[in-house]
Amino acid sequence: NAGVTQTPKFQVLKTGQSMTLQCAQDMNHEYMSWYRQDPGMGLRLIHYSVGAGITDQGEVPNGYNVSRSTTEDFPLRLLSAAPSQTSVYFCASSYRDRGVYEQYFGPGTRLTVT
Amino acid sequence: KQEVTQIPAALSVPEGENLVLNCSFTDSAIYNLQWFRQDPGKGLTSLLLIQSSQREQTSGRLNASLDKSSGRSTLYIAASQPGDSATYLCAVNTGFQKLVFGTGTRLLVSP
């Protein structure tokens, strides 16, 4: 298994541009989520999904859009990039195994918005 | 709103010392608590997960405890090694796999 994969690893955008951060997992996990990590603030939840076709907002959803058309993929769309969205973005997935949910994280995408 | 605090923010110890990292949370209604390790520029690696009904979990030189009623967890690292140098993150699961993270403890173990 490749686990949780994210592309690209690095990205530079200009203010106002849009882009999609890709996330995929090959473990047939039902839950997937997106977090952003900023210095001094820890990781914060952007959006999450409890299964294909079902998504919901996390703590900091503004400026981001998600969809979950398949179990494997959970892309994060930046609609109109702003400097405040400069951050490291992590995708995570999890499933229930013997009553225990454990989260697995991807390697991250480092985004800079100028 | 759930808040997670980790103390200390940074810790520097000589190799071989036993050490304790602290994590506290404000709302005891959690499903589980997970400790992660993060190396610079890398993703998160899960170290230990404690279910809300459990008191502790152990893996090798690591031991994590959970006191849900007081909103506290500790990560004990025995006989620290330079390879343990990293940032350690604590996160509580508030339901539907939504994690609330602390800001981490940056550990440096010197040879």
Helix content of chain B: under 10%
Number of strands of chain B: 11
Low-confidence stretches of chain A: none
Cα end-to-end separation of chain A: 36 Å
Structural class of chain B: mainly beta
The averaged pLDDT of chain B comes out at: 94
Q: Which residues of chain B sit in consecutive blocks of at least 5 with pLDDT less than 50?
A: none
Mean pLDDT of chain A: 93
Individual helix count of chain B: 0
Q: Which descriptor suits the 3D outline of chain B?
A: globular
Structural class given helices, strands, pairing of chain A?
mainly beta
- Report the order of strands and helices of chain A: EEEEEEEEEEE
- For the CA atoms, what is the radius of gyration of chain A? 14 Å
What portion of the residues of chain B fall into strands of 2 or more residues? over 45%
Radius of gyration of chain B: 13 Å
Structure explained in plain terms:
The complex is a heterodimer of chains A (114) and B (111). By secondary structure, chain A is mostly beta strands. Chain A is 0% helix and 57% strand. Chain A is built from no helices and eleven strands. In chain A, strands 2, 4, 5, 6, 9, 10 and 11 form a seven-stranded mixed sheet that branches. In chain A, strands 1-3-8-7 form a four-stranded antiparallel sheet, with no helix packed on it. The mean pLDDT of chain A is 93. In chain B, the strands form two sheets. In chain B, strands 2, 4, 5, 9, 10 and 11 form a six-stranded mixed sheet that branches. The mean pLDDT of chain B is 94. In chain B, 0% of the residues lie in helices and 58% in strands. Chain B has no helices and eleven strands. Chain B is mainly beta.
Question: What layout of secondary structure does this protein have?
Answer:
The complex is a heterodimer of chains A (114) and B (111).
Chain A: E1 4-7, E2 10-13, E3 19-25, E4 31-38, E5 42-51, E6 54-57, E7 64-66, E8 76-78, E9 87-97, E10 100-105, E11 109-113
Parallel strand pairs in A: 2-11
Antiparallel strand pairs in A: 1-3, 3-8, 4-5, 4-9, 5-6, 7-8, 9-10, 9-11
Chain B: E1 4-7, E2 10-14, E3 19-25, E4 32-38, E5 44-51, E6 56-59, E7 62-67, E8 72-77, E9 86-93, E10 99-101, E11 105-110
Parallel strand pairs in B: 2-11
Antiparallel strand pairs in B: 1-3, 3-8, 4-5, 4-9, 6-7, 7-8, 9-10, 9-11
